[in-house]
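Researcher: Hi, I'm a grad student and pretty new to this. My advisor asked me to get structures for two proteins we've been looking at. I'm not sure of the right format, so I'll just paste the first sequence and hope you can take it from there.
Model: That works fine. Here's the first sequence with its structure tokens right after it:
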Amino acid sequence: MEVGVQLVGILLRFLNFLLAPLFCLRARDRRRLPPVSSSILLKSASELAADIRNGVITSEDLVSTYISRVREVNPFLNAVVEERHRAALDEAKAVDRQLEEARKNGSFDQLVKEKPLLGVPFTVKESCSLAGLSNSVGCLENAGCRASTDGGVVSLVKKSGAIPLLVSNTPELCLGWETTNLLRGTTNNPYNLNMTPGGSSGGEAALLACGASPFSVASDIAGSIRLPAAFCGVFGHKPTPGLISIEGHIPTLSDESFPKFLTVGPMTRKADDLPLLMNIMAGDNKHLLNLDQPVQMNQVKVHYMHEATDSVALLRVQKCISDAINNAVGYLQTACGCTISEEKFKDLEDSVEISISVFFSMKDIPNLLLDPADPKRNKSLMVELLKYIFGGGSRSLQGLSFSLINSTHLFIPESRHGYYNGKANQLREHMKEVLGDNGVFIYPVFIGQAHHHNAVFLKASGVMYTMAFNILGMPATTVPMGIYNGLPVGIQVIAAPNQDRLCLAVAKQLEIGFGGWKPPQ
């Protein structure tokens, strides 16, 4: 490990130990969310679509139920940026009329085939662009900006018949692992309002977890789907890059590597919804994923690691996460007939250096210190930090932290960046070869469960567990593995590129074995 990275890690580890009691003392919000009172809110998107088709419920009643739930929980969560409830109800009524007409004129079967999610509501991460709604992505100078068109994936999901309800909160320009910004404020974790739902798709994860959304359109560039899914006890899939459109995403970069790192994908409460949504989101590329091809679980080889390294500079993975990995591996072996491999991927110990060196080598990374009045000048990071402390800042603390990492590269010498780029390529090829078309890798999503608001700055090294697989271009699925001390526990299932079907199949088996999503009590 690089000396600079070690020193930063040791400092953060010491501060985490020192300040942990302070975070606990500040955790004074004792409120609890209203429980899920309607069985409708417990169903998968696939089940809801079937209920609408079979006349069990109307789209209007379904959308109304979800709107009521959003209004009930959002005062606790602060997850909603802007809603379109009235328009959604009008669209639901139109769906009900369309279905009635189709039954009469004989076009019903064709209609539901073309629109498998007809009448089902969904929610959208603000950065993914929903036409007519806010597109400011938590950035003060973008206040009032609206999306002129739907993002590529949002468009495909709407074509499948689903009805968007709202756009949800993110960190400033998605540059952070906690969902808070100066424009919209902080989003809370539904299992404990003193905790973060993670980021940058924290608004979506919070709504999903408490039954306020059947499924989400979200995005992931450094764990932005998987981390919130783990913190909020839902499923989240980062697809193989390049197969699903990232058109319309805010922010976007001109660098040729950007589409290799950023993916748009689904978040759900039920594993069954993931293949359906991936087929919809992949559009004309869905044939490349073969998601409808059954996975023979007794032919799957399972690799696993409990943590990347035991370096003194990094926080250790909590026991509840290690136990969840052991439970998952044991279940896949005994109940599913999977083969367990003891081979480890040792080069993951350099995940911090690989991730920082490769990611921050991109051009056009947003410069949050650029002076709008003089684009040739950068503002002082220290001055901006002081302005933030005294309530006059124009950048969030996360945005300033991102700027610090971008400018220092965690003190990794520039002469070493080429070395770590090469190591990333070697690790990618090695993992592709070892995993092949029948292997998965069980690994932590983060070092622990959801933490207190603002503690992310002390636990930042934990994102090495997700960010590395954006750099390596591999699909990965967060799987909820139960509740421990009142908070969800999640792990991730990783596969070789284009082998998303393996991630989703294993996620389904683990849902069967461990119960999957459990609503906040």
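Researcher: Oh nice, that was easy. Here's the second one.
Model: And its structure:
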Amino acid sequence: MNWSSWQPVLLWLLSFSCSAISEENHAHESVKNHTGEKTDLEKQVDSCPADCVCNLDGTVDCGGVDLKEFPKNLSQSILHLSLQNNALEVIPLEELSRLQSLETFNLQNNRLSSKGLPDDAFRNLKNLRYLYLANNKLTVAPKYLPKTLISADLAANYLTKIYPLTFGQKPNLRSVYLHNNKLTDAGLPDHMFNASDGVGILIMSSNFLKYVPKNLPKGLFRLHLKNNKLEKIPKGAFENLSNLRELYLHHNYITNEGMDNETFWKLSSLEYLDLSCNNMTQIPSGLPRNIILLHLEKNAIKTIPANWLTQIKHLEYLLLHNNKIRAKAIHPLAFKGLKKLHTFHLYNNMLERIPSGLPRRVKTLMLLHNQISEISRNDFAYTYFLTELNLSYNKLTSSKIHPEAFRKMRLLESLDFSGNNLNVIPRGLPKNLHILKLKENEINSITDGVLSGMAKLKELFLSNNKLKLNSVYPGAWKQLSALQLLDLSSNQLSYIPTDLPESLQYIYLQNNQISVIPENAFESTPNIKGIYLRDNSLTTTRVKGTAFEKLKFLQVLDMGAYTESTSSKENITEDDSENDADQVSQNDK
């Protein structure tokens, strides 16, 4: 499913150079009449206001020309007028009232106050369909807007009051944008959308509402109320919204006491529900069965009971990170029957172990930043479909990871153990891995055969450990025949690893103790593109320039500012450098 359709619809900003005007309705305006006289639109083009652009399709574009006054003597026949991005403070009623054919009026990004916008400013615009007033200084909404209106944008003003006929009695109205204002419950009429049931998009985020507005239009399919002061959802607030597909309630103060079992139940079309960043201590009951994506992160949820989620048969994404959930508070049957649930976030909780009863068809499981200290043999015995598992920044030790814990995970491609207390790479890792992250542990050796069979591994991250060359079993790297990225930075290596795989494209060796680069250092990696060696103990006399000559695909060679040794200080010749390199190699072996 394409989840981009769930993102808030971007406002259509008027493009006057590409206006699509019905040829059937307006073709007569672009030709001379039978007497040979010019039409009103042709006269408008001839007398176009300074710095504006006028077209025969009825468009006048005066956007961004630093206008301080409303342009005068505009043709009564113009259809689209853009005055956006100027410095207008007043709209004269007598000038605006003449423009009775106007369909699109763009006034966003000006300095309009409610005092400079007459109550009757738009009353005579009987054909107005699109009105853009965002980013001005309005404190109250216009009292009257035309019945023909399709979309109204009053976002980013200082609105404290909406009138009954601002949006009421508008049968064609489809979208209203009121976010980033100063609206309170007292500033909204009880029937704000009376006889405007066709409104599908209502954006009222970032205001000061404590309650969900009353009598919302029945046609709503997207409702944004995030970042308000909502504490309670009144009984029946959503009962008539059977078409609602997306509901955004995050960043409020909603508690479980502020809802009841039927708050969301009648939202039969709801697919996206965002209740993150509220004050809930448990998952709301009575959630509708068609939800696909459920945001519950950043609350104070402590438990996941049995049968609480099982009615949501279509659930695919469950986000419960940043709560206070312990593994023992998750019922073993909490996810029973959720056959479509493939992405589960439980990071930043209080899990002391792997929860039992994990969703069987989960593909992405995020358990990072918990208190997990052990992985038992059967913790992942039924998660056959896992492709990504993140266990980073827990309290795992190598001895507490059962060597058969991953035996069933044949589809796993990405595994992250970073930021734990591992001293060796765990045995029994899935052979299908493409990405393995083990950075920021205490790994001091790679024991014999632990990487054997990983023919699909493309990226291996081992930075910030305690590896030395003699602590890696012979041929370990060569076995990784598909490896493209190897990160060994911030370890204790004294030499470039030998037997690197031919497939390698990037190697990170910065912040080690490497002092010599011999001529054959990268002989086995002809396809390498990036070599990172800064912050080592390299000197110019111990770096063989010929080591890089045959690397035809090399794009990045980062060696930092290494020391240039002089003969008076160390008296090291190139022959001495080669001898030193051989000696280092022998010592490491």
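Researcher: Is there anything I should tell my advisor about the second?
Model: You could mention this: Residues 1-33, 564-589 have pLDDT under 50 and may be disordered.
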